[in-house]
Amino acid sequence: MKESIEIKNATVNNLKSISVSFPINTFTCVTGVSGGGKSSLVYDTIYAESQRNFLESMSGNMYGQKLMDKPAVESITNLRPALNVSQIYYNSNPRSTVGTVTDISYYLRTIFALVSNYEKHTKLTEQSFSPNNPTACCPYCRGLGEEYVISEDCVVPDVTKTLAKGAIKYYAGKETSLAYRTLEAVCNRYKIDINKKFSDLTEREKKILLYRTEDEIFDLKFKTPKGRYKHKEVHSKGAIIELQEQSLNLNQSSVFAAISKYLVKQPCLHCKGSKLNENALIPKVGGKNIFEVESLKIDDLQEWCKVARDHYNKSCLEKQINQLTIQICKKLEKLIQLKVGYLSLQRTIPSLSGGEVQRIRLATQLTCSLRGLLYILDEPCKGLHARDIEAIISATKQLVQEKNTVIAIEHNRQYISAAEKVIELGPVGGPKGGYIVSDDKPKKNLKYQVQFKRPQKFEKFLQFKGITYHNLRNQAVEFPINAITCITGVSGSGKSSLVDVISASLTSKKMYCCQKITGRDLIKHIERVNQKPIGKTSRSTVVSYLGIYDEIRNLFAATDYAMEHDLTASNFSMNVKGGRCEECQGTGYKKIELTYLPDSYIICPVCEGRRFKDTVLEVKYKGLTIDDVLDTAVSEIVDVFSDSLAIYEKLQCMIEIGLGYLKLGQMSMSLSGGEAQRIKLTKALGSNYSSRCLYILDEPTSGLSEKDIEKIEKILRKLKNRGNTILIIEHNPEFVMRNAEYLVDFGCFGGERGGQIIAQGSVEDVFKDKNSSWNYLL
């Protein structure tokens, strides 16, 4: 009988005294509904106890026992050192790249140093080619490869507006404000009609307003934010010229905050994005400098390694070059195996999706020589097309073959069927969940049943032509209005780039990276849900993310008791002084910062978790205090706000999407991945748009079980029936077959080989196209 990690009577969060075992040196999947207890078991129990034991053994009990609480579990036996390869990897450092995370950049830079020292008799090290080294980096961008510039598109975001209505954002404001009065004075001096649309201005008029370099003086009378009128002598130049002068002091946080809305990043003009100075770019190996090599796609880098190896064959560098390129190629093979070969080593970690980051970290572990570890994977199939799942299964099994244990949280049934054991938690999410629904071997050879809906005829389309962006090259696409369209294709094929162009073009009312748009007038609003994680700090809560707290505060401030005691909406804010508890600054918790450990949180001893001062807690709206509203399940308070449509719509959507058990004051960091994904959907889908809204959703089924997905589908159909249009990036074949009325497919290739729309039309037509990403299912 196999040795197992034994969990006895775990009660962390919503777990109901569960006891379960995970066989050593095998692959176990944990699945179930969102909020059912998966993260509580895997992360908050198993991983947390492994961390605590590890630190306890290292630090003589100082950290392990005193600072890190033991999870609420009777016992865990045979536990192994755990490594968390999760989706949520909060590395926001722009200096961190695919090359540095995988260590491939280190090996490449070492090759360049060896070659330069051999051929040019220099004394360089690998640091001589690192943008993080002050002697090697570009002195202008300091090794970032990017710089901020003032964007005319940000200064004038909507050319259809008149000057008086704020076409030039820099001058937008009330008619009595200093900004508006400055614009008015310039227009009067140069005889420019302030009620003219920006698009109707002559080139001369645009140049005067934006690029005038002469410093002119105006005597203005304006109204301050405090309501007082003042006279002031104002020096004025063109809006963009003034902003460019201010941008010279961007290193001052106050300046950056003031003008950040006008800034865009672009490659550094001096180093052309290489991040390095001229000296670091001189040495070449295989005909390329270090920047050119790190800019190659991972798929193409193996060929360069072969060229470098052949070139220095039979030289005194032969042995060293061979050893280094072998190490590089081992890592490249794993990255290609895990379907991220379309990336370059230069890609920054913050620019990657959660799925890409996890696969890169997983590839790194596949070349690790450590054995006997417990690997915890969080939805390793996220962001992958169904045809690429086999590669992740193979990588998981390789970890097991190396004498490791793998526990994966996953919903993909193809991946689950490859596990040796499956534990399902549920049967529902929230307080009523946390039970073991099943604990058994998986059902093998699960195949998708291919069934097609009857094709529909559409009259109106939103069309884009000449799309050129990232790897998209002169593409044309159309989407039927008042329909559900799915956009599919393998990872890196161009799906996100396509919706970037659509979203940017419709939001800015300009053609963004495309040549022609037809049907723009058929769309009135846009709501987009991406894959970025929601706030993960103690200040970020469900209510703050949904954007309904201002409405709630206004309702409390309008009560008789609040007005009698001079309490305004700001007194009910958790973010400003006045009504909040200052001990915890309105969070209800005190953060304990721990050396070598993640931050810990305890209930505030002053307000006892209620966030506000007693005077504020005396105010009641329909019998509830502000703390009651924040600390009661949404399903129990939704009717209290039936008179406020903006609040009610969002809360009702939370209930329909299966999150009625959550509390509005719940910290975002306490949500599971599936709960966080549905909160994002609630924010967008709960918007009170009756028709003509375009909803763009990026993998809405991510992190969700089949039961949770069914709830999403009902809401999508309801929105469509109201007259809205829905675009969905999706990899789940069953979701696509059940819901898509129109399908746009990018095919089977990512990176440079991708970027082409292979087929578009009915689901059946696209599936039957021999070049589509779905044809293999037939």
UniProtKB/TrEMBL annotation:
**Domain of life (superkingdom):** Bacteria
InterPro entries per the UniProt record, alphabetical: ABC_transporter-like_ATP-bd (IPR003439), P-loop_NTPase (IPR027417), UvrA_DNA-bd (IPR041552)
In the record, the note on similarity to other proteins reads: Belongs to the ABC transporter superfamily. UvrA family.
Subcellular location per UniProt equals: Cytoplasm
Extract the GO molecular function terms from the UniProt entry. Answer: ATP binding; ATP hydrolysis activity; DNA binding; nuclease activity; zinc ion binding
Q: What GO biological process, any one, is recorded here?
A: DNA repair
Query: What are the record's GO terms for cellular component?
Result: cytoplasm
Taking every annotated instance into account, which residue ranges of this chain make up the domain ABC transporter? 446-778
Q: Which organism is it from?
A: Megasphaera elsdenii CAG:570
**Keywords for this entry?**
ATP-binding, Cytoplasm, DNA damage, DNA excision, DNA repair, DNA-binding, Excision nuclease, Metal-binding, Nucleotide-binding, Repeat, Zinc, Zinc-finger
Pfam families referenced in this protein's UniProt entry, alphabetically = UvrA_DNA-bind (PF17755)
Q: What is this protein called?
A: UvrABC system protein A
